[in-house]
Amino acid sequence: MQFTESPEQSELRSSVRRFLAEKSPSTAVREQMETVAGYDDAVWKQLSVQLGLPSLAIPEEYGGAGFSFVEQCIVLEEMGRTLYCGPFFASAVLAATVLLKSGDEQAKSRYLPGIASGETIATLAFTDDSGGWSGNGSGLSAADGKLTGHRNFVLDGHNAALVLATARTPEGLFLYAVDAHAAGLTATALPTLDQTRRLARLEFDGVEAELIGPAEAALAATLDVAALALAAEQLGGAQAALDMAVAYGKIREQFGKPIGSFQALKHRCADLLLEVESTRSAVIYGSWAVAEDADEVPVVASLAKAYASETFFHAAAENIQLHGGIGFTWEHDAHLYFKRAKASELLFGDPAYHRERLAGRIGI
């Protein structure tokens, strides 16, 4: 593996960063936070058609670009840096991955091209009211090709055109494809701490569904990929919070000199830099492990998610503290990163959850 980016990967990062700087500045993020959908459809179409970002990690035979998870993590890091509001994670990461892991060639050929082009916004519905992220809970059952029950905390569930839902049957947990406009399916947007990421509750009342296949193995593999993908996004957010704090330290003066020249603030920023760079190493290694389909993915996924969660939250909190009074105001962007950090810390399992999983996976 390589810890340095290839020229092509560096150009991808630069292109995505330029695009998001223009299309997803904090002013646009704040506007989209107030809308029902929570994202700008025109920007999503540009991101999909002009840059082809949803297609990156999807194989060419299914309409994708045929790149790897390494490139997808670069994109996710840049999206985390700007708090991009859009269904990329739900559609291009969760839904696309569970389809690829399902082993159902018919389902892949039918649904992945639309996801790759951005024309189909998809999501994965697997959590119940307990708030657990293992996907082993109840809440949704299947019988005679129809789903009854609910799924909660579904990423972009109210925006999706395609819902991939896990449901219980007497034979076990299975994955189903559901048209979001099917009769009996109701999607309700949920109030969230992080207004830049939308969650929904889906109610199924005898909804017609297409069986894809057994879900347990595919879901477990997908959640490991999702944990690493979220760690990449958290890395981008942590770096942005650190950059924001350092920039402010250079321009804010106290006692006739920039506050960044004070040793106490230097130490705090140095500690954050160490944490951010350590997170970067974990994310790079994890993205390589997924790209190579390495056996250690489950271990690396939990390790990276736990560490990235703590790093992002620490960086976001310190950013507020280093800004002083202005950092606590609604007008400043620091609180947006703090809320994203806290919500992301809990999404797919908090650090304690992943450390427990990590201990079990390495036999401690």
From TrEMBL:
Domain of life of the organism in this record? Bacteria
Task: State its cofactor.
Answer: FAD
User: Quick check: keyword Flavoprotein in the entry?
Assistant: yes
By its UniProt entry, which InterPro entries does this protein fall under? Acyl-CoA_Oxase/DH_mid-dom_sf (IPR046373), AcylCo_DH-like_C (IPR036250), AcylCo_DH/oxidase_C (IPR009075), AcylCoA_DH/ox_N (IPR013786), AcylCoA_DH/ox_N_sf (IPR037069), AcylCoA_DH/oxidase_NM_dom_sf (IPR009100)
Q: Where is the Acyl-CoA dehydrogenase/oxidase C-terminal domain?
A: 221-362
Q: Which residues form the Acyl-CoA dehydrogenase/oxidase N-terminal domain?
A: 6-119
A Pfam match: Acyl-CoA_dh_N
GO function terms (MF aspect): acyl-CoA dehydrogenase activity; flavin adenine dinucleotide binding
Query: What keywords does the record list, in alphabetical order?
Result: FAD, Flavoprotein, Oxidoreductase
Keyword Flavoprotein annotated: yes
Q: SUPFAM superfamilies attached here? A: Acyl-CoA dehydrogenase C-terminal domain-like (SSF47203), Acyl-CoA dehydrogenase NM domain-like (SSF56645)
* Gene3D superfamilies for this protein: Acyl-CoA dehydrogenase/oxidase, N-terminal domain, Butyryl-CoA Dehydrogenase, subunit A, domain 2, Butyryl-CoA Dehydrogenase, subunit A, domain 3
Q: Which family does it belong to?
A: Belongs to the acyl-CoA dehydrogenase family.
Put simply, this protein is called Acyl-CoA dehydrogenase
